[in-house]
User: Fold these one by one.
Assistant:
Number 1:
Amino acid sequence: MVKSLTVIVVNDNSERLQKVMAACGVASRRKCEEIILAGRVKVNGVTVKELGTKVTPKDCIEVDNKLLAKESLVYYVLHKPTGYITAVSDKLGRRIVMDLLPIELKKNFRVFPIGRLDYDTSGVLLITNDGDLSYRLTKSAKEIEKKYQVRVDGILTQQAVNQLMRGIILDGVITKRAKVEVLSMDKQNHSTLMTLTITEGRNRQVRRMCEAVGFPVKKLKRLSFGGVTLDGLAVGEFRQLKPHEIKVLYSL
Ligand code: URA
């Protein structure tokens, strides 16, 4: 007898039907394949018997005419180390941020990172199985504050600070207003430490902005995302978000 369950919501990633069923706890993936072949599964009201069928979180899946149950939503912040790619899998076998999460968590919840940090960037990375929240936080119209600690090569000039704050043209589009706070200048090592707060999430945005004003990034760490901070987490550690943090993220 198959339990009543619903589908997990994960961004726009389509996945094989049997994989989703297995993740929802219907049965093992092999057994789920048998269930599909037996014609016991409907996707959006239509019986499917093909094992290659792909489904997205928006699809309505029924097994023996029972809707798959939604898994409970979980929210974490990971202190991403450098040297990991922000992905849930990697064909080239490189280290991925998911390697840092316990197997039990990944077995029970289809968690994934919200947005991305470069391989060489460390800091705040939100992890969840809440596709709705992820969508809200990553759609370009939303202005979610992300604060970075940046060490750049060179002694930053006031002119460069002004440019960073006012906006830099990247791919023909000016970046939105940013906040800059210079923390220290190291004349000996010829570098400047600052915080840069931006409200967009364009590809390699901080690195490209700094490069554009003539101060390449040496080290980059995200200090906060939508108000969520590392809160004492050591590199590679993660913690569950507090209810008020989740509430704030939903209110942004
Ligand atoms: N900006 C970058 O350039 N890299 C990141 O990882 C995040 C923001």
Note: The chain is about 20% helix and 30% strand.
Number 2:
Amino acid sequence: MMDNKCTFAILTGGGDAPGLNAVIRGAAKTFLNNGCKVYGSINGFNGLVNGKLEPLDYKRISGILPRGGTILGTTNRDNPFRFAVHNEKGLVFEDRRQMVLDNLKKHNIEALVVIGGDGSLAIGAQLARECGVNVVGCPKTIDNDILGTERTFGFDTAMSAATDAIDRLHTTAESHHRVMVLEVMGRYAGWIALHSGIAGGADVILLPEIPYQIDKVIEKIEARKAAGKSFSIVVVAEGAKPVGGELSVARVVKESFDTIRLGGAGEKVAKAIEEMTGIESRNTTLGYLQRGGTPTAFDRVLATRYGVVAAESCLKGEYNVMMSLQDDQIKAVDLQIAGSGSRNVPLDFELIRVGRELGISFGD
Ligand code: F6P
């Protein structure tokens, strides 16, 4: 372990996910218990650019384990290498890396724990690569789509919320003889849709990884009707698209790392089903309800492990790594892997086969 004069900083970046506070608590307690000082950067990388760093003590991190969101605040807009500024010329991007380096130096910060998704981890990796900053990453996102780890924290809570939503939709579907469509988040990966669809007993699951043919979806619903089932449950990932078709884009956020925000795939599917079958069909978009609120026990434990092991890594001087879950062990992988792409559901993933054996249609 390093001497006890070291100072570290923690930041949370990108969309919030249940378990962020558990990571902050796990890492901060480990630093404090080892005699170190620890700061929290307010609102992700914005705090490092603008010098908004708050000391974290036992009092500040008390009672936060079960709380959703992040006590440090977050944003998916402030990239120090491409910092969005609105001035008389409109939206311009400035390189503000030197401000980050100055603030790290000013507070004598030895290393930075970056808790984030692919965007924030990619920024952390760039700070390490191009500026020599010591960084340890923790993989956060409800989407479970980060390369280099089998599981991100936040996913279990989102999957549980989506499953609960399917259970609730079932009662209306059954009572009203309707097709109920649920659109879930996940960006370009279908982890939430697949797991919640299996857990909730969906009849159709549409994933970004398997472009769908609407005729196949209709076939399944008609077959259920012919077998005396007057309702169906369809789970649609927000990134699902028809064969040869486009993604459903809800908005563009120019300042953001990933500028596209998805939305509308479920509504599109529900409309087509109603038109083609004559069965009343309704879409529900679960949205931020699957991202907020208290983390499940699984996410609290996973997030705590990530935070503690990330701090241990800092104390040992092992930097430029990301914490990763592999075979139920927290291991360190190269930080550069994290932001280098999206981890999608493999087409030969067991749960897809399981779904097919159950008779679930994937629209192909
Ligand atoms: O990455 C998490 C996530 O919730 C995605 O599932 C979703 O597509 C996106 O963030 C929404 O982003 P925003 O909070 O900017 O609307």
Note: The first helix runs from residue 20 to 33.
